[in-house]
Specification:
The complex is a heterodimer of chains A (263) and B (332).
Chain A (H helix, E strand, L loop, with lengths): L2 E6 L2 E3 L9 E2 L6 E2 L6 E3 L1 H16 L2 E9 L4 H10 L3 E6 L8 H15 L4 E5 L10 H9 L3 E10 L3 E8 L2 E8 L2 E5 L10 H5 L7 E3 L16 E5 L8 E2 L5 H14 L4
Parallel strand pairs in A: 1-6, 1-8, 6-7, 7-13, 8-12, 9-12
Antiparallel strand pairs in A: 2-5, 3-4, 9-10, 10-11
Helix pairs in contact in A: 3-4
Chain B lengths: L6 E6 L7 H17 L3 E7 L4 H8 L4 E6 L8 H15 L3 E5 L4 H12 L2 E6 L1 E5 L4 E8 L4 E5 L6 E5 L16 E4 L11 E8 L12 E5 L9 H10 L3 E4 L1 H5 L20 E5 L5 H4 L7 E6 L12 E4 L2 H17 L1
Parallel strand pairs in B: 1-2, 1-4, 2-3, 3-10, 4-9, 5-9, 12-13, 12-14, 14-15, 15-16
Antiparallel strand pairs in B: 6-7, 7-8
Helix pairs in contact in B: 3-4, 5-8
The chains are: A alpha/beta (263), B alpha/beta (332).
Chain lengths: 263, 332
């Protein structure tokens, strides 16, 4: 048995970049993103890819990474191939820019249908830019397959999957058949480039499918629309405690918090 | 005029006790419903529910739809979403609000997909715009660095509300409301997911979410061993120990102790952040705290921007002085 695993990955601005660069242009109302921060694969989707690669370590499997957008970069998304994915599919069209969750999921599900047979679809728990955690459920909805979110561990059997789903006070064990969609939380950082792959699949071009290839009319797609965006103001004045030594500063902090009836 | 009316709250109940999160949802729904002069319906799932139902009314519900069934004692995504979809269709609310919890955040997209309506998750504020007869949810993006208020959405809407983002209403036992039992009837063929077992990993001592004081450590703590100093401080303060993502990823504290966007949301009286730089994802989990106290060796660390008290320097020297002095003061 050879498995076909599809991993959904989003190209976003690297969320590890400095918080200070973000802002809002007061004239246009548009988001200002920090300058010089390169795009990256959504880190949660990297966890999903790593989960797929761990399955591939133990089973005969091929991995297709699929992404939707207007300007997808082979240099950025190609990292998935270098880590060990077999194929890269870009669903790329000017009408695929800034789609809302439902339209994003619709385009991806059409891409998955065009790929044909598959056993598993994996995705990160959420995107590190829009932070909605909705698209995985919607993809499963369009494909009419079961969906389980917040998976931290996947165990595969011949016809079924056993997963561990994170909970605030532990985890639960669930079973589901194939094909299914799993959204992943944790699961380990994406492994470094596979040297064999960098010379082989790592250099493969991405397959590009446009709206026309997928037979998607732009009129059915909806864009995200924000009435107003703003930078939240949490800043307070910090009362810095200083002393001759760090140990004294600690003691002074305790006294200050007691005086102010905080502790 | 829209065909949809009223605000519906959904939550599950365990052991016949309303959770604090449910009470927050009711407060939010009440605010919205009053804005439109409409009713609050509360849908509760669980087994053996009794006094909870009156509590829901006391905290703001006009009608309580209760599905009381052994099938609903534990969360199953299929059973819950199919049952909820059915009840929501009967009541046709303009808005359904769930908590941004492991259950709420899982069931909301299933429900919105079935209903074919708009969905905004993890809202920190939800307002009424009377002029446009619409609900405006505010959802943080880019890990909370920016907040986005959505343009008017469709005539029916599913929302999830971040925990601890609204003050609950005062309990009012004189409020009147109707209790409406709902039967659970599921075609077994529609259940595709099987829940095998639940493993509890709760750490000992006071619960992180309820603790009046939280002592949290981050990357700067450096090791699991070093967390014993934070535990010692938490012990003196009757507090709980938390951690930022680097601390939980490295296994220095359990994953269930993670504070942040993808962990727990806490709002204690005092949040002591030690060796935590203050990424927006971490602040999302603790910004509701009344007083943030930071100890960090980087004077430029973001955490100082949101802290009322701060000490810049090496925590390994500052913390013993702090703990020792507190112990001394407590003995007075």
């Amino acid at each position: 048995m050879s498995l076909h695993i599809i991993v959904c990955a989003k190209q976003i601005i690297d969320p590890e970049g400095p918080a200070s660069g973000y802002g809002v242009n007061s004239d246009t109302g548009q988001i200002i993103l920090p300058k010089g921060v390169p795009p990256a694969i959504n880190p949660y989707d990297e966890n999903a890819l790593e989960t797929a690669l761990k399955i591939k370590d133990a089973w005969q499997a091929r991995i297709t990474v699929i992404s939707v957008g207007k300007n997808l970069s082979k240099a950025v998304m190609g990292k998935a191939l270098k880590a060990g994915a077999d194929n890269l599919v870009f669903l790329q069209d000017k009408s695929f820019e800034n789609l809302d969750s439902r339209s994003t999921a619709y385009v991806i599900s059409e891409g998955i249908k065009k790929l044909g047979d598959y056993d598993l679809v994996l995705a990160g728990r959420q995107a590190g830019d829009t932070d909605s955690a909705v698209v995985p459920h919607y993809i499963a909805g369009f494909l009419d397959i079961p969906c389980i979110n917040l998976i931290k561990k996947v165990e595969l059997f011949e016809k079924s999957i056993r997963v561990e789903r994170s909970l605030p006070d532990g985890y639960e064990v669930l079973e589901v058949g194939m094909p299914s969609l799993l959204s992943i939380t944790g699961g380990g950082d994406l492994r470094k480039a596979d040297l064999q792959q960098t010379g082989g699949a790592g250099n493969k071009p991405a397959v590009i499918w446009t709206a026309k290839d997928l037979e998607i009319e732009s009129s059915v797609l909806k864009k995200i629309s924000w009435e107003k965006i703003f930078v939240p103001d949490y800043e307070v004045e910090c009362n810095y405690i200083k002393a001759d030594s760090y140990k004294e500063a600690g003691a002074k902090l305790a006294v200050k918090l007691r005086e102010d009836q905080i502790l | 005029m829209t065909a949809f009316s009223g605000i519906t709250v959904f939550d599950s109940v365990s052991e016949d006790k309303l959770m604090s999160g449910t009470i927050e949802l009711l407060a939010c729904a009440r605010k919205l419903a009053d804005g439109f002069n409409e009713k609050v319906n509360c849908i509760l799932f669980g087994e053996g529910l009794n006094k909870t139902l009156k509590e829901a009314v006391a905290f703001g519900a006009d009608n309580v739809f209760v599905a009381d069934d052994p099938l609903l004692k534990k969360y199953n995504p299929d059973v819950y979403s199919i049952t909820l979809d059915r009840i929501v269709r009967q009541t046709a609310p303009r808005c359904i609000i769930l908590g941004q919890t492991s259950t709420g955040a899982d069931i909301a997209p299933r429900l919105a997909f079935k209903l074919g309506c708009d969905l905004v998750t993890d809202c920190v504020e939800i307002n009424v715009n009377k002029e446009t007869d619409s609900i405006i949810p505010i959802h943080p993006i880019y890990g909370g660095k920016i907040h986005a208020a959505f343009s008017p959405l469709g005539s029916q809407l599913v929302l999830t509300l971040r925990q601890k983002s609204i003050e609950p209403l005062e309990r009012d036992d004189s409020r009147k409301g109707e209790i409406i039992p709902v039967k659970v009837n599921i075609d077994p063929a529609l259940i595709r997911i099987k829940v095998v077992k639940k493993i509890k990993e709760e750490t000992e001592g006071i619960r992180l979410e309820n603790a009046p004081v939280v002592v949290s450590g981050g990357r700067g703590i450096g090791s699991k061993e070093n967390f014993k100093h934070l535990k010692e401080l938490a012990g003196i303060l009757n507090g709980a120990v938390g951690g930022s993502r680097p601390a939980t990823d490295n296994g220095w504290v359990p994953a269930t102790s993670k504070v942040g966007l993808t962990g727990k949301i806490v709002a204690p009286n005092v949040y002591i952040a030690i060796g935590i730089s203050g990424s927006s994802q971490h602040l999302a989990g603790c910004i509701g705290s009344k007083n943030i106290v930071a100890i960090n060796n980087d004077p430029a660390a973001n955490i100082f921007r949101v802290s009322r008290y701060g000490v810049v320097g090496d925590w390994e020297e500052i913390l013993p002085g702090f703990t020792e002095k507190l112990r001394e003061l407590n003995a007075l």
